[in-house]
Amino acid sequence: MKNTVNKKAVGARIRKIRLEKGMTLEEFGKLMGADKGIVSRWENGTSVPKAERLKTVAKLGDMTVEELLNGSPRYDWDKVEENLRDSYSFTIAGDLYSIPFEEKIFSKLKNTLENIEDVTFSSDDILTFYQDCIERNIIITDYSSLISYLKERVEEYNDIIQGVSDFDEKEDTDTGLLSAILGSRNKYLTLLNKAEGKQKKPIAKAATGLDS
């Protein structure tokens, strides 16, 4: 078995499994026929278990060997696509309509979000991005365009909020719009705060090699 893996990341996952099971290095090692020194090397990222031991560790962690070596995928894109293809919205008049699915827009959005490390957006977040791309002709192709788009949406809502606030004060009436608009603005502000400062980092050089 020959593979290219990030041994530090694999070690961190192995350590997490061991600690979740409440085992010492020695107890954990006995399950694999390894001494505590070997387990320590795994956890420190010095080496990676061989195939049979990987299977045992993965089983203990209730995951596949692939997930143990490379981590669980942050997004289930098949499910995301299925949800987008079955998504609906409302017109200003309150009529329900189906949001069209555009493969190119989805592909660009998918690549953008995959390349932003340390941040995982929810299905609702992705629907918001996708719907804006479709309905507002927004183009999201990388981290910078995502941030620019979110900032513009926040600024747009800030302008609307100011206008509604001035109207309410002038007319001495509560239109009920302000709370709804604030909610929408805050949604985009939350997304902006979630993404900002999380630009893709250089990918750490992967280590190669397997151990005992």
TrEMBL record:
Molecular function GO labels: DNA binding
Any Pfam family: HTH_3
Domain HTH cro/C1-type, first and last residues per copy: 14-68
InterPro entries: Cro/C1-type_HTH (IPR001387), Lambda_DNA-bd_dom_sf (IPR010982)
UniProt protein name: Repressor protein
Organism field: Streptococcus hyointestinalis
